[in-house]
Amino acid sequence: MLKVSIITPLYNCSEYLEQAIQSVVSQTYQDWEMIMVDDFSTDKSIEIAQRYAAEDSRIKVLQLEKNSGAAVARNTAIEAAAGRFIAFLDSDDKWLPHKLETQIQFMQDNDVAFSYAAYEKINEQGNAVGKVGVPERITYYDLLKVCSIGCLTAVYDTQKLGKIYMPLIRKRQDLGLWLRILKQIPYAYGVQEVLGQYQLRSDSISANKLSAAQFTWKLYREVEKLNIFKASYFFAQYAVNGVLRTKFPRLARSLGVLH
């Protein structure tokens, strides 16, 4: 088997962290390491992580000396990673038990350097409230228009790509990484089967969307260096697609924005 390094940033996530870790421990694919980087949490997150690390040598815990943001935490974990494959799982999300086995086999069978998968959204009671389907393949320009890659499903192959890191911005750094990868290869490929569960949170959804939009613009202009015309074009696509996906999912599916 080929080792997978699982990248998990921690910040005040004690409410959900155990279920995330358990979903990794329960994987049918066993050749993995889970690298959790605590971003100066003030709750019990670090204690929970260290308890699991004491019980399973595949789980490693690192601590940042100050709160630095998810990009720094994830990049610290990527730097420490020893696996051929880099996978991402946030501390409040979960994987289905066959996630790694299915996705790594898909990548090997199809000679894929970067993959993603469909996933479910779950509410705070743990009930599924909707499936997020994915396109069969995505280009760099597709991704500028709408981010169809859920961070909890992304996996890339360091043997094919080397280690690639996230841009140091507070939000949308995951999209920044996917764009960096797709500058090296023509396509990322999607597993159509649901392989993970994304945790919906009740805290300020509208404010989060506004902030995400602001950081998407920042990503286009400051990281991707798109000129004002290209940035405006892709941001308009991003905004329209976001409204379609949220408010008019049936229309979004007919237009290929949702899958």
From TrEMBL:
Top-level taxon in the UniProt lineage: Bacteria
Ranges annotated as spanning the membrane: none
A GO MF label: hexosyltransferase activity
Domain Glycosyltransferase 2-like per the UniProt entry, residue ranges: 5-131
SUPFAM superfamilies: Nucleotide-diphospho-sugar transferases (SSF53448)
PANTHER family membership: GLYCOSYLTRANSFERASE, UDP-GLCNAC:BETAGAL BETA-1,3-N-ACETYLGLUCOSAMINYLTRANSFERASE-LIKE PROTEIN 1
Protein name in the entry: Glycosyl transferase family 2
Organism: Pseudidiomarina woesei
